[in-house]
Write a structure and sequence with these properties.
With 300 residues, the protein is an alpha/beta fold. Helix 4 packs antiparallel against helix 5. It is elongated, with a radius of gyration of 56 Å. It starts with 6 loop residues before the first helix and ends in an 11-residue tail after the last helix. Helices cover 55% and strands 16% of the residues. The chain is built from six helices and seven strands; from the N terminus they run αβββββββααααα. Strands 1-4-3-2-6-5-7 form a seven-stranded mixed beta barrel.
Length: 300
Amino acid sequence: MDTKINFFKIGLFISTLIILLLAIIFWLGKYGFEKKKFDEYTIYFKESISGLNLGSAIKYKGFAVGNVYEIKINPNNSEEIEINIVINKGTPIKEDNYAVLGNLGITGLKYIELKGGSNDSKLLEVNEKGIKVIKSKTSDLTTLVDSTTDLTNELTIVLAQMKKLLDDENISSISQILAKTQNSMNNMEQFSSYLVANEKKIDELLNNISTLAKTGNKSFISIEKSANSFKELSTQLLSEVKKGTFDIKDMSKESFDKLNTLLNGLDETLLQTQNLIDNLNESPSDILFKQKNIKNGPGE
């Protein structure tokens, strides 16, 4: 019986086994376990990421869920910074999640805060390039700084315009305007004082005008009624004459002359009344302000 042991074959077998085990461990450590523990995402920032470093925390609503493992400039857009992160597997990153930069106290260090993520939203899927991109928004501090810068620029423009407005020439013009305004105010004050001092006279004048208007209106109505009555009477009288109700031949010539005189007088009265009404309708103020022109005699 051959009891010799082939140590070469045993050593070769053990060495091969060890190398194989190391390769399996390496593969599991780099590609197996890591893929099972984390999900990879990419974030693009346009603002400064000063204070954000490799290994900086990724927080989901304040809870640490991962870290940064790569920072570089976006090869497709030099205005953006590409941040590659890993997040604990199973963390629900939704389509409406977004990333902002947060500050760790007064240290100047930063971290990435994930916000949003409604319950009804879908889970984030890979894009056409095969990566999951989380949207980013400008942080509150950066927004405040930008707003302050814009406000400073606007104030600078306003101050420049104010400087132009308040030069010596414009100040002189403004002073003249103020002086004229003061004079106008003084005139208005004098006019107001005059009105107050003559308040009773003005009230009396207004009352007299109101009374006169009411009286004139009543007089016009009365005159118009009288004219209408006279017109109706003339029409009826003419109608009766045409019918032969009155025997003109039997009337005495004296009575006929009197009646004719009366009718002529009434006709002139009606004409004058109609002219008065027409004149008052065209210019009612003539009854108050029209002056009578007195004809002077020879040598006057």
